[in-house]
Amino acid sequence: MKEYKPKIVCFLCKWCTSAGADLAGTSRLKYPASILPIRVMCSSRIDPMFVVKAFLNGADGVFIGGCHPGDCHYHEGNYHTRRRFAMLTKVFDTLGLDSKRLKLSWISASEGTKFAKVSNEYTEKIKSYGENPSKWNVFL
Amino acid sequence: MSDRIGVYVCECGPNIADKVDIKRILTEISDLNEPPEKIIIAKKHKLLCSKEGQDFLAGEIIENELTHLVIAACSPRDHDITFMNVCKRTDLNPYLYKLVNIREHCAWIIPDKDEATEKAIQYIRAGISRVTYQSPLTEKELDSIPDVLVIGAGIAGIEASLSLAGEKRKVYLVEKTSSIGGNVTRFEKILPHQGTNLDIIQEKIKTVQENENIKVFTETEVEKAIGFFGNFEITLKNIQDEEQKKEFKVGAIVVATGFNLFNPEKIPRYGYGKIEDIYTSMEIEESNSKTGKILLKSGKPPKSAALIHCVGREEKGYCSRVCCNYMFKIAQYLKEKTPAIKITEFYQDLCLPNKADQEFYVDTKNKGVDFICFKDIAVKQKDKDKFIEYTKMDGKKEKISAEMIILAPAIEPAVGSKDIAELLNISLDETGFFQEAHQKLNPIATSIDGVFIVGSAQNPKNIPDSMMDAQAVGGKILTQLIPGVKLVPEVIISEISDAFCTGCQTCLSVCSYGAIYFDEDRNISVVNEAICRGCGNCVASCPSGAAHAKHFTSLQIYQEVLEAIR
Ligand SMILES: Cc1cc2nc3c(=O)[nH]c(=O)nc-3n(C[C@H](O)[C@H](O)[C@H](O)COP(=O)(O)OP(=O)(O)OC[C@H]3O[C@@H](n4cnc5c(N)ncnc54)[C@H](O)[C@@H]3O)c2cc1C
Ligand code: SF4
Ligand code: SF4
Ligand code: SF4
Ligand code: FES
User: Fold this and answer.
1) Residue A50 within a domain
2) What pLDDT, on the 0 to 100 scale, is given for residue A136?
3) Which of the ends of chain B has fewer CB neighbours closer than 10 A, N or C?
4) How far is B234 from chain A (nearest CA, A)?
5) Edge-to-edge strand order for the sheet containing B278-280?
6) pLDDT digit string (tens) for B156-168?
7) Taking CA atoms, what residue in A is nearest to B553?
8) Looking at CA atoms only, how far is residue B145 from chain A in angstroms?
């Protein structure tokens, strides 16, 4: 049997985490192919519905990456992200989705190593949970 | 019409070519061809960003009459602009192109070539899917006004005005008091390494008043400022006669409102306002500069003086940075007048940030001034005598008497800073000074484009630092607001659809730039295109799907995500 390769959607803000992911690449760090970065202008662009949709369409995990608190290119965008993420976690639980599969992390443009580390650890974690079951019982 | 999508994979020399199987990518991507609706042309090139590579791309776009372009290469941080410019050379709108990063996100991170190739294919598919949902966008040009409004005519505001005013650029310098020059004009001297006398300052004041491109308004305040970088509408009002208004337009605004001193009466242990012969540093400066004398209330010169630094430092939570130096200056004033005077300076920490400061400190010490580092301090009165009771760093309690006590109260943001912040839609930080865009990377800009802060309005600062800010702002504005040159505002911005907006104003509350206003008549929110930066926060917050982020629409993002996880 082929090894289970999870699909992890990563919404990364253009200014920090996306640049951090680039640096991980430039530094030739290794992390799994499961990590699928999607670039947005700011983490605050991420509509909680994106995350729900990604899950219902087969993502095994969703990882949101933004600038460190206080460093958002748009000042307070990531504070809104943090609040929305907290709300999303609750909504996930009420909907019977697995909020453990969600991750929010602040990674700066200079933290290539942190990006690779988070990506590796998070992929391992998702692997241990196995495939996302909710994509088989769509109820929304 | 059918979509004609060109997909070009870059080898990046060996960088990509060695790590992914480009041949397999091209075959699998070509298989996505679905004529007649979707025609896919997939090719590779060894170095797309080179001049030759760019010419190749431009030729391909024209020859194949491409409607969309996908490039699989490096990070958009490297070459997004390069390829957008290639599009601009042809008829293809640059927003109908998408760069897929298969180098940093695939080639360089995945050791297994097959795995890297598969991810690259998945990723390119997502890019193709997204690009077909992208819409053409056009860059607009706006007229900009080169003139500048400077609020506050202290040394920072004056220096900013001087570095900005010119034949093609007027400066409006607004001062709320009746004279210009700010706090500096109240001093007898400035520090010795700054030139000692105030000639340079007086000279600058004179030059500003004589400059025909600088219009000075005293006893005036800003009443209104509406607009955006390149075009602010300003209304001034005269403080004495509120009916007397003045309206004009500027392209940028410089806030130089400076500082006030903390009122030491708020901390009763210093005895200020209750015990005789306790003065603030500024009172001493003023008396010395007006009368040339520093005297006790009795009219006699003091035989002993205690100078207390750091008054209000703990309460305010920051160091005021300039006090140590000017307290040495005051000690030297006293020594010059009465060489036999006994002077003790009490400090909590010495702040000597500039290169000449240490020397000035040593020089003051050598002139016979005593320095004591304290943990606690209080001023007490017994009969006619005043005492300083203090605890030293080692915990020992001691006291000395002094005829005159001089306090260095904390530097506070100017009275009215809050009103200015509200007027301009900028923020104050937790200390009450104006909040800079970034403390290290952009200390003179604010969250609003075209609004700058200089001098002690941003942070306690000495004269040279305040002037340096002003010159830096001068440079920024001169390069960003060139007379006759049009401004090209951000294209990737948000918009609100009238039909869907319910007027709930959630979006308004999340925007950091005040880019959304509420149209009372139509009961909907509207994005001001010139101010919006396109972060998309409002879009994620809108409960009715009325707000859209151009080039990052929900549909575009969904299409990319769905294809990536398929
Ligand atoms: C006792 C003392 C001695 C000092 N000695 C020295 C020294 O020797 N050397 C040195 O380098 N530094 C010294 N400093 C620091 C120095 O005063 C500051 O660096 C300098 O004044 C900063 O200039 P500024 O233009 O930023 O602010 P300010 O001098 O405070 O000027 C601000 C101006 O803006 C005006 N204003 C405020 N609000 C508004 C408004 N809403 N609308 C219109 N106008 C407004 C004010 O009336 C004022 O004219 C000393 C400070 C003190 C307290
Ligand atoms: S376009 Fe990017 S990937 Fe291609 S050669 Fe240039 S740097 Fe390398
Ligand atoms: S959040 Fe949406 S519905 Fe509410 S005012 Fe803004 S655009 Fe309109
Ligand atoms: S996109 Fe960002 S800057 Fe533009 S209106 Fe929305 S919240 Fe404000
Ligand atoms: S730009 Fe990175 S979180 Fe806002």
Assistant:
1) yes
2) 63
3) N
4) 26
5) B278-280, B404-409, B304-311, B342-347, B370-382, B385-392, B397-401
6) 999 999 999 999 9
7) A45
8) 25
Q: Are B535 and A41 a contacting pair, CB within 8 Å?
A: yes
Residue B376 is predicted with a pLDDT of 94
Whether A22 and B77 lie within 8 Å, measured CB to CB: yes
Q: Is residue B170 over pLDDT 70?
A: yes
Asked if the Cβ–Cβ distance from A21 to B533 is below 8 Å, we say: no
Q: Is residue A138 part of a domain?
A: no
Residue in B303, B382, B315 with CA at minimum distance from that of residue B348 = B315
User: B57 pLDDT exceeds 60?
Assistant: yes
Which structural domain, as residue segments, surrounds residue A62? 8-129
pLDDT band, residue B514 (cuts 50/70/90): confident
Q: What is the amino acid identity at position B371?
A: F
Residue B2 confidence (pLDDT): 87
- Please tell me the total count of domains within chain A: 1
User: Rounded to an integer, what distance in angstroms lies between the CA atom of residue B234 and that of residue A68?
Assistant: 36
For residues B400 and B454, membership in a common domain is answered with: no
The per-residue pLDDT for B427 is 87
CATH (domain of B368): 3.50.50.60
Closest by alpha carbon to B151, among B235, B242, B254?
B254
Residues facing A63 on adjacent strands:
A10, A103
Class of residue B272 by CB neighbours under 10 A (exposed 0-12, middle 13-18, buried 19+)? buried
At A56 the three-state DSSP class reads helix
Contact A80 B540 (CB under 8 A): yes
Distance from CA of B474 to the nearest CA of A (A): 24
Check if the beta carbon of residue B403 is closer than 8 Å to that of residue B297.
Answer: no
Residues of B in contact with A9 (CB under 8 A): 561, 564-565
Looking at chain B, the whole-number percentage of residues with pLDDT higher than 90 is 89
Predicted confidence (pLDDT) at residue B399 exceeds the cutoff of 70: yes
Contact criterion met (CB below 8 Å) for B283 and B186 = no
Tokens of B343: 């002077």
Tell me how many domains chain B contains: 4
Task: Yes or no: say if B380 and B390 are a contact pair by the CB < 8 Å rule.
Answer: no
Q: How far apart are CA A93 and CA A106, in angstroms?
A: 23
Residue A138 has a pLDDT of 54
At B195-248, the pLDDT tens digits run 778 888 999 999 999 999 999 999 999 999 988 899 999 999 999 998 999 999
Rounded Cα distance between B273 and B53, Å, is: 77
At B441 the pLDDT is 78
- What pLDDT does B3 receive? 94
- Residue B556 domain-assigned? no
The residue to mutate among A74, A75, A78, A80, having the most atoms of ligand 4 within 8 angstroms of its beta carbon, is A74
CATH of the domain at A110: 3.40.50
Instruction: Identify which ligand lies nearest to the alpha carbon of B237.
Output: 1
Q: Give the mean pLDDT of B352-381.
A: 95
Q: Residues B174, B176, B180, CA angle at the centre, nearest 5°?
A: 70
Q: How high is the mean pLDDT in each 10-residue block of chain A (140 residues)? A: 84 96 96 97 96 93 95 92 96 89 96 97 95 68
CA distances in angstroms from A44 to A74, B128, B236, B280, listed in the order given: 9, 25, 37, 48
Beta carbons within 8 Å of B411's beta carbon, 6+ residues apart? B259, B261, B262, B320, B321, B322, B323, B456, B460
Residue of A29, A31, A42 to mutate, interface with B, max B Cβ within 10 Å:
A42
Whether A26 contacts chain B with CB within 8 A = yes
